[in-house]
Amino acid sequence: MTQAVLDARTARVLPWLVAIAFFMQTLDGTILNTALPAMARDLAEDPLRMQGVVIAYMLTVALLIPASGWVADRFGTRRIFFSAIVLFTLGSLLCAMSTSFNQLVMSRVVQAVGGSLMLPVGRLVILRAYPRSEFVRVMTFIALPGMVGPLIGPTLGGWLVQYASWHWIFLINLPVGLIGCIAAFRFMPDLKSAERMRFDTFGFVLFGSAMVLITIALEGLGEMQMPHARVLLLVVIGSACLAAYWLRAGHIDKPLFSPSLFHTRSFAVGIFGNLFARLGSGALPFLLPLLLQVALGYSPAQAGMTMIPLALGAMFIKPLAKPLIDRLGYRRILIGNTLLLGSLIASLATIDGQTPTVLLLAHLSLIGMVNSMQFTAMNTVTLVGLSNQNASSGNSLLSVVVQLSMSLGVASAGALLGGFTVPGADDAAVLDAFHLTFLCIGAMSMLAASLFFQLDSKQAMSAGPIDAD
Predict the structure, then answer these.
(1) Each residue of 216-259: pLDDT tens digit?
(2) Is residue 449 situated within a structural domain?
(3) I need a labelling partner for 288 at 20 to 30 A (CA). Which of 70, 174, 185, 390 fits?
(4) What is the Cα–Cα distance from 211 to 222, expressed in whole angstroms?
(5) 295 close to 434: Cβ distance less than 8 angstroms
(6) Count of the separate structural domains present in the chain
(7) What is the CATH number of the domain that holds 180?
(8) Domain interval for residue 3
(9) Does residue 195 form part of some domain?
(10) Phi, psi for residue 76 in degrees, rounded to 5
């Protein structure tokens, strides 16, 4: 990859360009959940079976992240970043024009293809275009929209649904996307690899097939209500693909993700811990707006504003993360925090129509703080022990696992909610189904604490916490 030489104007504009792309992605990821009940009514679908709209996006992003670096090296960062914004914007338009559930899901896939390339390619350009002395400052600036998006997304989504229509949660991406396209064409450096890099296509197919098949199997238990024999078959085939990938990866040069990454104990524990601990975190943005609107009768705007404490709590705890990790260490923080997070998620089973609003907001704020601490500690412990040679591949695998675990979290929540909901159930029975789902999701999250017991209790912190998810 050639090193970019930036003029003064491009050096000023480029961080804004990547930050806007990050903002579009994080806003879209949080604005949608509040609108799901309204979308279900308009598309004549059950609001408790709308998780496919969320899963389609997350799974596509997870699937394509491993290819993003190779695609940028092969075709140039300017062309790929520009194309990513175009696809994301086009997907947003198609989502707004959708008249059926299946059409909406396919439009979300188009949107996700663009989303899977925007942030990884943007980060790659920043890494290559700025000296290391400037890298942390620029990345900190770019990470800020990642905190603002979840803060305003649910509220904006609720207000748009209540006072306009759900279509506007996608239409607002169009002017931002147009500005991004113009800026990308003018200011994005065109970096390419000087040599043709080999891509592990067969490994990509095996790894991607495993992710898709296992997720569809979980989805089949919920929204699609597949026969159990078909679900079992999908799980077996998906697991076989995953086993075949790892067996093959150990015997070829430059696999998609090398098994040697797992020789670093903290990385292995961090990856598996991320996979299981994030099941609850991934399910929350999907379950909470549904609970508030479907079971408790909140309006979309009320439900959106109720989600604000989650983001505020996350922002409040960020400055305290490093001192706490320095003082207590990864092992204590992650074991205690995981158990606390699972307990807080399970305790949402106590929420009903009689719960005081102040108590609900305090509960969600505490979940936001604990969740943020969990993300920071897990991200850092996963990458902190890797060598420079393995850092890029390890970071890419972590990004895949983050998206995959959130997708599996939504799929699991949908399957549990569907299993606990009896057709034609009254309001009290629907609320009971939500309560049982929160209990199960919380218990699943707490199991990840057993993985963090495997961390070295004496491991010192050798790098600052990694906030970006």
Answers:
(1) 887 776 655 677 788 889 889 999 999 999 999 888 888 888 88
(2) yes
(3) 174
(4) 17
(5) yes
(6) 3
(7) 1.20.1250.20
(8) 1-189
(9) no
(10) 100, 140
> What 3-state DSSP class applies to 205?
helix
Burial state string for 103-122 with b = 16 or more CB within 10 A and e = fewer than 16:
ebbbbbebbbbbbbbbbbbb
Q: Are residues 183 and 221 in the same domain?
A: no
| Residue 251 in domain | yes
Assigned token pair, 211: 């992710």
Kindly state the tokens that stand for 345: 């998620």
Lookup: tokens for 403: 């998206």
Q: What is the value of pTM for the model shown? A: 0.84
The domain boundary, picked from 236, 255, 274, lies at: 255
DSSP letters, 290-304, are HIIIIIS---HHHHH
Residues written for the chain: 469
Give me 319's structure tokens.
């400055």
196 within a domain of the structure (yes/no):
no
Q: 219 with 411: CB under 8 angstroms? A: yes
- Dist. CA 398–CA 249, nearest whole Å: 17
Same domain assignment for residues 155 and 61: yes
Integer Cα distance of 196 and 99 in angstroms:
43
CA distance 392 to 381: 15
Q: Check: CB of residue 177 under 8 Å from CB of residue 85.
A: yes
The residue among 50, 54, 55 whose CA lies nearest residue 30 is: 54
Instruction: Write the pLDDT tens digit of every residue in 320-343.
Output: 887 888 888 888 999 999 999 999
CA angle 16, 18, 19 (to 5 degrees): 60
Residues 243 and 156 in one domain: no
Contact 161, 62 (CB under 8 A): no
The rounded distance, in Å, linking the Cα atoms of 455 and 33 is 35
Q: Are 420 and 294 in contact (CB under 8 A)?
A: no
State whether 444 and 387 are in the same domain.
Answer: yes
Q: How many helices (H) and strands (E) does the chain have?
A: 17, 0
Could you give the C-alpha distances from 159 to 153, 156, 167, 299, in angstroms and in order? 10, 5, 12, 9
Query: Is residue 158 within 8 Å of residue 305, measured between CB atoms?
Result: yes
Report CA dihedral (218, 224, 227, 232) to the nearest 10 degrees: -20
The pLDDT of residue 460 is: 45
